[in-house]
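Reviewers of the previous submission asked for a worked example of the structure-prediction workflow described in the proposal, so we include one complete record here. The input consisted solely of the amino acid sequence. No template or homolog information was supplied to the procedure at any stage.
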Amino acid sequence: MNKYHFVSGGAERYFISIMEAIRRRGIEPVPFSVNYQNTLPSPYQRYFIEPVVPGEAAKILHQHPSWAQKWRLFCRAVYNNLAFKAVTRIIEEQSPDVAYFLNFNNHISPSAIRACVRKGVPVIMRMSDFNLVCSSNMYYRGGHPCTDCKKGLYHAVIHRCVHGSYAKSLASVVAIRAHRLWRIYDQVSAFVCPSPFMKRELEELGIPPEKIRQINTFATPQRAGRPTWKRLIFYTAAGWLLTRASTWRSVLFPVSGINSQRSIFMCSAMSRMMIQNVSVR
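From that input alone, the workflow returned the following structure tokens.
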């Protein structure tokens, strides 16, 4: 279950990749999402709910809703009754063994969790961001890390953490507070965290440690492309970089626009440098 059924970011790439992986193992995944214009075709697309704001823009940041649509977006973020009914229908017609929740907040809402629990389907929730703790989901604002929401969610309104808007920040805070008040996430059977840090944050939030599993994000192996002079230069420089690591004190890694193969190398290089006490940024 994910609010986008197309590659919009890391969470969606994981969403599509995990469905492909379990399909290869003979398990039939049944996706549930919002039916945006760029949604990938699926035999289960008839279950998808329609967006509040029709058009090409799927992310709320890029939408231009009317005042009536803004109110509906807020209501859906708190409790989406359409999602509740749609998930109930999926369970009745497809009889899933388990529900795997990914990036669903705001567009689908935890109403889908309640639908699963009422039908006796266990819920596993994968934490792709900090949406249970942070109003902006990122632990980041104003160009620096921020965990002020752990002291009180009102900080998100003060700092306008959601898209620089008081109204959006307040709406996010109200939704999080409502979900905590209703104790919806107590009904989740297990939480999957991609990092030890995320696991510690959930434990600090009060989620029982026995419900949390730290599982690294898998990577799909890719075939190497045909050798080119650009690859030759890149990997020659990469080899030299690794041999010189022990003589440097600090290295800056720019990551914007890096493809998957280069990202794999950079992660490997960073880990080796850190072992050699080189500061990596």
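The chain has two domains: 10-214, 229-280. We consider this example representative of the routine output the project will generate in years two and three.
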